[in-house]
Amino acid sequence: MSAPSPDRPLLAVEGLRVDFASPVGTIHAVRGVNFSLGREKVGIVGESGSGKSVTGRAILRLIAAPGAVSAQRLEFDGIDLMGIDERAMRSIRGARIAMVMQDPKFSLNPVMTVGRQIAEAYLVHHDATRGEARSRTLEMLRAVRIRDPERVFDAYPHEVSGGMGQRAMIAMMLIPGPDLLIADEPTSALDVTVQMQVLSIVDDLVTARGMGLIFISHDLNLVASFCDRVLVMYGGRIVEECRASELRAARHPYTQGLLAALPRIDDAGRELAVLQRDPAWLEPSERL
Amino acid sequence: MIEVEDLSVTFGRHTSVVRAVRQATFRVGEGESFGLVGESGSGKSTVLRAVAGLIENWSGAITVAGRQQGRRRDRAFYKRVQMVFQDPYGSLHPRHTVDRILVEPVAIHRLDTADRRIERALADVGLGSRFRYRYPHQLSGGQRQRIAIARALILEPRVLLLDEPTSSLDVSVQAEILNLLQRLRRERGLTYLLVTHNLAIVAHMCERVAVMNAGRIVEALDVGVLRSENPTHPYTRQLLQASKGYDRETARGLVDFADA
Amino acid sequence: MSARLDSPASTRQWLLAETPSSRLQARLGEAYLAWRAFRTNPLAMVGLGIVVALLVVAALAPWIATHSPVTQDLTARLLPPGAVYWFGSDELGRDIFSRVVHGARITLTIVVLVVILVAPVGLLVGTIAGYIGGWLETALMRVTDVFLAFPRLILALAFVAAIGPGIENAVIAIALTAWPPYARIARAETITIRGSDFIAAARVQGASRARIIWRYVMPLCMPSVIVRVTLDMAGIILTAAGLGFLGLGAQPPSPEWGAMISAGRKFILDQWWVATMPGLAIFVVSLGFNLLGDGLRDVLDPKQR
Questions:
Q1: Has residue A37 got a pLDDT over 50?
Q2: Residue of B91, B127, B154 for testing the chain C interface, max C β-carbons within 10 Å
Q3: Are C26 and B78 in contact (CB < 8 Å)?
Q4: Looking at chain A, which subunits does it touch, using at least 3 CB pairs closer than 8 Å as the criterion?
């Protein structure tokens, strides 16, 4: 793990486009996205169809045909992700860039114990014995604050709760020691309190290891309170980029509209502001 | 309008019995909007389904509009009580056009002037008649939920049971649907029983709320108390804290109330 | 209306309208989309072509046939295929081509009768068992299992042996053994549909069980049943031919394909065309139904997409 120089970002994305060919014409899912990321927590928010998930997958080159990814620059820690072949990409996936998806039930192999899956993830990227892998796995399970790691190690995915499954998933993703974690709605299927616990684990690990985090979510409040920086996507473009703490002072009418549309505990009964979409938002604007 | 007393629901038999709801008691007045909040597995949706007559193995007493309800509900009950489901992608029949979906309740209850009713129901939910002959897959999530609401309204019920009506929708669409539900209640004096996991939505929509955890109602309170962030039960406090967004300190202090 | 149907382009526009203005238009639009998807599958189109050809041949048999299928001409026995007898002639001097053409009618009759008997029974038993559940489901499905346990041809044989040979009895015999798979498919589909929200929504509107089964469950079971029926056609034709071959189906002199093969097997080494021509007909038609069924499955059955 070479520490990137301060002036070189961990991830640089310029002019990222993802198109899906379909019988009725090409769908432009991502239409020129630019951002860079250091060792920080960046949130990407947007509604369904905004292209936020596709952006996350495109970075890992996980877009299958008929989807096509192009970018002027897609650079991770000095490596041109567009230029390398699939084999080199595989050695980056998991080992250096990891991804956590929404539902652990679908991401974990149902016929393999949780512990073995995590140990496998470690063994793929490290030259170690089974015993070492096991002790590293138990350590990792403890790190994601699973109280009885021995039991969870031998449990099958269906035997653990949703929150526990998602923690195991995070353990599995973080055990190879990646530099960047892409989390696509990692807590949307979880209850608020469980969500908080899982996020605090991610928070601690990311901070302690000095990783970068891309946190993809539809939940403005959550992103604003969890991340350092926020990118707001609309129609395949980033329409707003700001510090998370300053999201309330967002300038783009779309972001303002989304914030106003949220019901709030302290402000009841009023008519919620309805977002009036402006076709002009779909037009490319100069770099924010 | 709705009185629920000592409602208990158990699922499963013999060895693996799950007590989904345990002695829930609450009352919803006529024209009131009452919220049931809780996390997944708290039993809130089960209560709603028992009230709707979709679950049969419950015990206790359910009274709607002064009439005690049995296991099975008659047609007159459904003329008075209608329900809107969580997932507008699942609650509309995939092979029925909007027209067919809206004709069904009229036909079942042998009402006349189906045509006029459908046109009016579509107008009521803010959709024009050009949506009438479309299939659900030709509609967006928000439009589908409007159709589901139109279907519930076409029988002119007094009570709407709302099961997480906006949780699968985008924020901007959620605002539209919540506004629609607010307006309909104002105009028609409807009684709402709303189930949600989102405290902000209950605070916005309801006058009173019951907080559920592990099958029990832990606390029933006015939303004013919720708004002033002053509930008495520690579980409600924790839920309130957690819904305000991520906070490292809050996350540390979380307690598991499941066995409490 | 006339303006809309002026040209193919405007008809297409009318079919694909985003805001249909009547039930009919909406339904036709859906059908048109399914047809467009179906059209892209060349094998399925071949299957459709064969099945349509079978229908046409059966309908126009008297006009297509060059000779009478039953008139004997003992001076022209066992002639090889040629200009007069396109497929040759059989041991009684009958034109094989004309017999194959007329045989299409018999085959089609058997297939249609079996389907009319089988599909509704299977659908009804399966959806009722699946939706109502409980002891009724157990009872219905055990009965289904009993019928499923009989080997089809053997049961048909026993049945025909008991009540006498003939097409009608062959149809009844085949139908008796053909319905259980449909009941199973319909039940499996129903069980996945039963728990869905739109069924709960129908219940909350006060819909009766019968109404839910009829109007909500059955339309969703139909595609898989239709696909299964089409794929089963080949089996039904083969069973009918098998019964004919064994002399228990259609009786002479009716030109049933199976019976024709049976008659031709005596000459199979020297006059190969007598058995081969009806055999080819069975082969082509079975293949056609199978290809069509596969194509329909791709279009109708959303699980396969």
A1: yes
A2: B91
A3: no
A4: B
Contact list in B for residue C25 (CB cut-off 8 A) is: 133
Query: Looking up tokens 């069904």, which residue turns up?
Result: B104
Q: How many CB atoms lie within 10 A of CB C60?
A: 12
Model confidence pLDDT, tens digit, residues A198-246: 888 888 888 888 899 999 998 888 899 999 999 999 989 999 999 988 8
CA-to-CA distance for B83 and B162, rounded, in angstroms? Answer: 6
Q: Does A221 touch chain B (CB under 8 A)?
A: yes
Closest by Cα among A252, A195, A190 to A225 = A195
B136-170 pLDDT, tens per residue? 888 888 899 999 999 999 999 999 999 999 988 88
Question: Do A1 and A180 meet the contact criterion of CB atoms below 8 Å apart?
Answer: no
Mean pLDDT over B80-101 rounds to 91
Percent of chain A with pLDDT over 70: 95
Segment holding B114, helix H or strand E: helix B114-124
Q: Residues 89..108 of B with a Cβ closer than 8 Å to A: which?
A: none
Which helix (H) or strand (E) segment holds residue B171: the answer is: helix B171-188
CA C172 to chain centre: 15
Distance from CA of B129 to the nearest CA of A (A): 22
Cis peptide before A279 (omega within 30 of 0): no
The CA R_g of chain B, rounded to the nearest whole Å, is 19
Q: How many CA atoms lie within 13 A of C93 on its CB side?
A: 7
Q: Give the contacts of B101 (CB within 8 A, at least 6 positions apart).
A: B92, B93, B136, B147, B151
Higher pLDDT: B251 or C220? It is C220
Interface test with B, best of A159, A187, A193 (most B CBs within 10 A): A193
The contact set of B with C (CB < 8 A) is 49, 52-54, 73-75, 77-79, 81-83, 85-87, 90-95, 97, 99-100, 104-105, 108-109, 130-131, 133-135, 138, 148, 151, 155
Query: Which element (helix H / strand E) includes A20?
Result: strand A11-20
What is the DSSP code (8-state) at residue A71? -
Which 3 state secondary structure label does DSSP give B235? helix
Distance CA B228, CA B226 (A): 5
The pLDDT tens digits of the residues spanning C184-242 come to 999 999 999 998 999 999 999 999 999 999 999 998 888 888 888 888 887 888 888 88
Q: What is the mean pLDDT of residues B123-134?
A: 88
| Cβ neighbours of B104 in C, within 8 Å | 202, 205, 207, 215
Given A47, A195, A269, which is nearest B170 (Cβ)? A47
